[in-house]
Amino acid sequence: MLPRFPILLGFSGYKADWLRYDVTAGLAVAAVAIPSAIAYPAIAGLPVEVGIYSSILPLLGYALFGPSRQLIIGPDAATMTVLAAVLASMSAATPADRVVAAAALALSVGVLCIAAAKLGLGAIAAFLSRPILIGFISGISISILVGQIGRFTGVRIEADGLFPPFIELFQKVDLIHWPSVMLGVTMFALLLLLGRLRLPIPGPLIVVVMAGVASALFDFEGRGIQVVGGLPEVFPALSFPSDVKLSMRELLLGAGAVWLVSLSSGLVAARSFGARGKFEVEADKELVGFGAANIASGLFSGFPVTVSDSRTAINMSAGGRSQMSGLVAAFALTMLLLYLNNALRLLPIPALGAILAAAALSLIDIAGLREIWRVSRLEFVFALISMWGAISLGVLSGVVIAVSATLLYVLLKEMRPRDAMLGRIAGKPGFYKLHRSRAAQPVPGLAVNLIQGSILFFNADYVRTRLEGLAGELPSDARWFVLDASAIAQVDSTAAAMLEEVRTTFAERGLMFGVAELHKEPMEILRRSGFLGKLGASMIFEDLEDVMPAFERFCILS
User: Fold this and answer.
1) What is its main location (predicted)?
2) H-type helices in 233-376, by residue range?
3) Contact 39, 144 (CB under 8 A)
């Protein structure tokens, strides 16, 4: 039973004095959750109450099945933007249709998470490299910023991308509601100021309270400033989202895109907090927790969720000791929904736009991009490609661009594996790279080449050209050419055929080809291809050190 409900493991050894920390942390998490729970649904065109549902039920799902004591699950800006892109195909749908579709996507994401965990695919989270993930999330953040134009101005903006919304706004300049602009800009500036002051009370919560009070005192709604409006005073009923206005293809592709982004950003955040809080993060176990959280959200009219940076940070800083803090937060948000939601009715939309804009601005990792530029110009280019994809081609296309950029980056890194010629140092055992050690000298008549990387179909021609080029540069007395395969993790049938061609070419020149330190999998591929049989046992070496005695015997006998 314990493995099925990790919450029991999390509460094992629970101490009574932890309760006050968990209650305090839970209330702090609920306070931080309110602004994003209200604002984030707007990104995807969903009703405000759906954000509250998605902030309550996932906490219960993760508390039951999630392995971490301190991670908090909830709405995430990047995930919401991908969700918005999926729901954009339902432009003619009613708000109720969008809610059902979002719930179906949450369920699908949950099932994908659990299936991936059962298949041990937690490592797939590393598929989007750090530079590409930074670029992608920064691009999403810029998209969120641009998406707030309508909330700041009161003008309905239909264009997408980076510049078209500004062009449309210029064309509709006479429709701008300037009091809304002033309110939004003021709240945004206040959020930036509060962020610099580092007050114990979260800036978004202060803005929500101030904007709500000001709205009540000065009748913002009567002055033409849009407000949130009434919320239902009921808890969502358990229901399966069956009437989905998305085709099966759209549902699966959309769920896959949301899953990939939420999983990648969620596990990156989890590992970051794990390093800070000194707790281990096991990807496959976290997948089960993420899956349970999303299924709980989908069954109660919520949308897809992942690790929430802000809520987890507050939980840890407030001293949360276990998932009890998450349960306390869920209870507090439920009370808000049932008894205090009238206080949310007057919240002005420009203030919510300011909260979203400030949150998006904080996700643009300028420091990370600067570091990538300093470390690797190539990786920086891929970060920009990923950012451009998210901004210019839309978020769903941006996911494809990010994945494609990752594949291209991997291919470019692997297409030309590094290699080095090896030699000996007098009086020392072993072989040494000639370009690195001045004392190392090539062995007369013997060439040893180390290839650092797999040999597969896409780089086999390059490796063949490289090996033949090196052989052409050898002195005329060269007798053996031995490939050090200790750093070759994989080969395929194309590589096996290429190595046989190299062996034949070398033999025609009077140069014997050999292989040392083959790993088990490459050895099996080369054996089944017949290459090792043609090479001969005398030219296959388990250890590179075996090459010298064998070569010396060959020279004596010949």
Assistant:
1) membrane
2) 248-277, 283-299, 309-317, 324-339, 349-363, 366-375
3) no
Q: Which helix (H) or strand (E) covers residue 278, if one does?
A: none
pLDDT mean values, one per 10 residues, the chain (558 residues): 55 76 85 81 88 93 88 87 82 79 94 90 68 79 84 86 88 93 94 82 81 90 85 80 82 87 78 72 87 95 89 80 89 86 81 83 85 88 83 70 75 85 90 90 95 92 95 93 94 95 94 95 94 94 94 88
Q: Quick one: CA dihedral 394, 292, 290, 145, positive or negative?
A: positive
Q: Is the C-alpha dihedral spanning 551, 555, 557, 558 positive or negative?
A: positive
What tens digit of pLDDT does each residue of 182-225 get? 999 999 999 889 888 877 777 787 888 899 899 989 999 899 99
Of the candidates 342, 333, 266, 365, the one whose C-alpha atom is nearest the C-alpha of residue 35 is 333
| pLDDT score recorded for residue 177 | 93
The pair of three-digit structure tokens given for residue 460, joined into one six-digit string:
């086999």
CA distance 304 to 317: 26
Q: With H, G, I as helix, E, B as strand and everything else as coil, classify residue 451.
A: strand
pTM for this prediction: 0.69
User: 3-state DSSP call for residue 432?
Assistant: strand
Distance of CA 528 to the CA centre of its chain: 39
Contact of 81 with 275, CB cutoff 8 Å: no
Q: Look at residue 488 in the predicted model and tell me its pLDDT.
A: 94
**Collapsed DSSP state (helix, strand, coil) of residue 205:** helix
d(CA 34, CA 357): 16
Distance between CA atoms of residues 284 and 289, nearest Å: 9
In angstroms, the CA 288 to CA 330 distance is 20
Rounded to whole angstroms, the Cα distance separating 104 from 54 reads 13
Structural domains of the chain, with CATH: 34-410 (no CATH), 418-557 (3.30.750.24)
